[in-house]
Amino acid sequence: MKNLINPTPLILVNFKNFLECSGALSFQLAKKLQKSADDTGLQIAISVQSFLLSEMVKYTDLKIMSQHLDAKSEGSTTGSLIPEVLNSVGGWGSLLNHSEKRIPLEDVEKIVNRMNELGLVSIVCVENVEEVGIVSKFKPNFIAIEPPELIGGDISVSTAKPELITESVLAAGEVSVLVGAGIKNGDDLKIALALGAKGVLVASGVCKAKDPYEVMLDFAKAIN
Ligand code: G3P
């Protein structure tokens, strides 16, 4: 299994289907994020829109992820996104079960097993501590706790629900926990790390920021 996980905190920037980072704009954002990684040593992954994933792998040294995978087999499965094809184009890993793209937990388990065999990095999103306990048994690389009601808002999970982070870290056992929803700045990251998380998922706070590079610098200051 490829062990591409670096022990420094992971910042995953999810491009979603934001038009602010689709097409040519997605490469512009990736370039700014790459510069921030080069200047600060931040460990940055980006979950890009599927249409651009194979191009993005060639364009940047950032870790490239898909936003979703299906529990479908290779072959006659038109339109599905599958781990084997992600691996064949050089993807680093994938988000699974994002609250905007939920899948049955039995599918999550099947996909994580295939990703583990391929050496792909899995980040399984969950919405509560009970799901953390269930998913940790599948042995993904990361579990990302994201309260859906805080996604896209101005109040971060770190300030609104610090206890959720602590409880998730406990419930995840040996599986590393990331946190997301409303993350905007270094203070949000600092709290998450202090409570035992290994990094954050952030979308609007970077993709829609006036200056994404500055946001990343603020994250870097919180770590150093
Ligand atoms: O995947 C991360 C995402 O759901 C969080 O979104 O906009 O609250 O950072 P946002």
The count of domains is 1
- The termini sit apart by 30 Å
Bin the helical content: 40-55%
Rg, nearest Å: 16 Å
- Please write the CATH class name: Alpha Beta
Output the CATH homologous superfamily: Aldolase class I
Spatial ordering of strands, largest sheet: 1-2-3-4-5-6-7-8
- Give the SSE order as H and E letters: EHEHEHEHEHEHHEHEHH
Q: Please tell me the CATH architecture by its name.
A: Alpha-Beta Barrel
Uncertain segments: none
Taken from the alpha-carbon principal axes, the silhouette is globular
CATH topology: TIM Barrel
Derived from helix and strand composition plus strand pairing, the structural class reads alpha/beta
Mean pLDDT: 96
Task: Tell me what you see in this structure.
The mean pLDDT is 96. By secondary structure, the chain is α/β, with parallel strands linked by helices. 41% of the residues lie in helices and 17% in strands. Strand 7 (176-180), helix 8 (186-194) and strand 8 form a beta-alpha-beta unit. It has one domain (10-223): Aldolase class I (TIM Barrel). SN-glycerol-3-phosphate binds next to strand 8 and helix 9.
Topology:
Elements: E1 10-14, H1 24-40, E2 43-47, H2 53-59, E3 63-66, H3 83-88, E4 93-96, H4 105-118, E5 121-126, H5 129-136, E6 142-145, H6 157-160, H7 162-172, E7 176-180, H8 186-194, E8 199-202, H9 204-207, H10 212-223
Parallel strand pairs: 1-2, 1-8, 2-3, 3-4, 4-5, 5-6, 6-7, 7-8
Helix pairs in contact: 1-10, 5-7, 8-10
The protein binds SN-glycerol-3-phosphate.
SN-glycerol-3-phosphate (G3P) binds at residues 14, 98, 146, 151-152, 180-183, 201-205.
